[in-house]
Write a structure and sequence with these properties.
By secondary structure, the chain is α+β, with helices and mostly antiparallel strands. The chain has one helix and three strands. It has a three-stranded antiparallel beta sheet with strand order 1-2-3, with helices on one face.
Length: 69
Amino acid sequence: MPEDSVTPVTYTPEERKKIRASIDSGDKQPVCPRCGGELEVEGPITVPTTTQPYFRVGCKPCRRMAFIS
């Protein structure tokens, strides 16, 4: 991936599971399973078509982003 790319990349299913477990455990600052950087967590976000809350998580250092349910 070019260094100047601003397009976010997603996490693998295993990485998303680790992030969800970190959010559920109440960690004060979840970390990126890929690079160890601090994750920015937004949410919970309510979606009208579901009862599950979603969180938008992103890591600036490795430019990864995902919606975690």
